[in-house]
Design brief:
Layout: H1 7-10, H2 12-26, H3 31-45, H4 48-60, H5 65-69, H6 82-95, H7 103-113, H8 116-139, H9 145-155
Length: 156
C-alpha cells in the first residue's frame, strides 16, 4: 500500500475495527449488489483506488464489463434489475446528500425493492464505501487488489 500517510499504521486499533465492520456489512448483502454500490459511489467520489480495487473484485465475482462500464449511465442502460436500480439511486442520493433532497424519491424506490432490514444494511454499505473513499482520497491510498484480498482473508 502506498499513501501520504498510512492510517493502518497511525491508528491500528480503529482501522482494524473499521475494516472488520466493513467486511461484516458487505457480507450481509448480495456480493454483486455490493460491488455495484462500491463502484458507483467510488465513481461519484473520484476514488481511483477504490475503483481499481472494486472493479477487479466485481469481475472476479462474475460481473460483466458491460455492466461495469455502463454504471455512470445506469438509468438509461437496460442491463440492471429494478432492485439494482433502487440500490444505485439510493447510493447516489446518499453519496450526493449535500446536493439536495433526491433521497425522498430514491427512498420510495428503495422501499419497493428492499425489506426494512435490507434498507439498513444497504445504507450501512453506502456509508462504508463513502468512508473508504474518503480515507483513500484523503490520504492518497493506493493498494494492489491482491494485497487487499489477502488482508480481507486474514481479517475474516
Amino acid at each position: 500500500m502506498t499513501s501520504q500517510m498510512n492510517p493502518f499504521a497511525a491508528a491500528p486499533a480503529q482501522m482494524k475495527e473499521w475494516h472488520r465492520a466493513s467486511l461484516a456489512i458487505a457480507g450481509s448483502l448480495d456480493p454483486k449488489l455490493v460491488h455495484l454500490v462500491e463502484i458507483r459511489a467510488s465513481q461519484i467520489n473520484g476514488c481511483a483506488n477504490c475503483l481499481n480495487m472494486h472493479t477487479v473484485f466485481a469481475r472476479e465475482n462474475g460481473e460483466t464489463e458491460q455492466r461495469i462500464n455502463l454504471l455512470p449511465a445506469w438509468r438509461e442502460a437496460p442491463c440492471y434489475t429494478d432492485r439494482e436500480r433502487a440500490a444505485l439511486a439510493w447510493t447516489e442520493a446518499l453519496t450526493k446528500l449535500s446536493e439536495g433532497h433526491a433521497h425522498k424519491s430514491a427512498y420510495e424506490a428503495l422501499k419497493a425493492q428492499f425489506t426494512e432490514e435490507e434498507q439498513v444494511k444497504l445504507t450501512l454499505m453506502v456509508n462504508v464505501i463513502n468512508g473508504w473513499n474518503r480515507l483513500a482520497v484523503g490520504f492518497g491510498l493506493w493498494a494492489d487488489p491482491a494485497q487487499v484480498k489477502a488482508m480481507n482473508k486474514a481479517a475474516a
